[in-house]
Amino acid sequence: MIVRIMGEGQVRLDDSHFAELNKLDDELLAEVESGDEEGFGRTLAGLLDAVRRLGTPLPDDALEPSELILPASDATLDEVREMLSDDGLIPG
């Protein structure tokens, strides 16, 4: 799956990593819903770090369609709230 982190670029991520990412996504969703700014910042950073660590960066000139778009590391709680679906940022 191709994942875009807004403002950074794209990474190719194997589907086997989505269980780990979904745990972080569930935490992030709960923190957004409760308005926990501190927890939100920590969990968003953890989620993005996991995508960077587990994924393989695509070249800057690659134009692959992104199957998943994640917010930038400096996104606010309100900005992420607007991006969320019932499943969070990551479907499933």
Notes on the structure:
- The structure is a single chain.
- The chain has 92 residues and is an alpha+beta fold.
- The protein contains three helices and four strands; from the N terminus they run ββααββα.
- The chain has helices at residues 18-34, 37-54, 77-83; strands spanning 2-5, 9-12, 56-57, 68-70.
- The protein has a four-stranded mixed beta sheet, with helices on one face.
- The longest helix is centred in the middle third of the chain and has 18 residues, at 37-54.
- It starts with a strand and ends in a 9-residue tail after the last helix.
SSE topology sketch:
Layout lengths: L1 E4 L3 E4 L5 H17 L2 H18 L1 E2 L10 E3 L6 H7 L9
Parallel strand pairs: 1-4
Antiparallel strand pairs: 1-2, 2-3
Question: Quick gist of this model?
Answer:
The chain is of the alpha+beta class. The protein has three helices and four strands. It has helices at 18-34, 37-54, 77-83; strands spanning 2-5, 9-12, 56-57, 68-70.
Search tags:
4-stranded mixed sheet, 3 helices, 92 residues, 46% helix
Strand residue content = 5-15%
> Low-confidence spans: pLDDT under 50, at least 5 residues?
none
What is the alpha-carbon Rg in Å?
A: 13 Å
Mean pLDDT: 92
Q: Major β-sheet, in short?
A: 4 strands, mixed
Tell the overall outline.
Answer: globular
Strand order of the largest sheet: 3-2-1-4
Order of helices and strands: EEHHEEH
N→C terminal distance: 14 Å
Helix content: 40-55%
| Total number of strands | 4
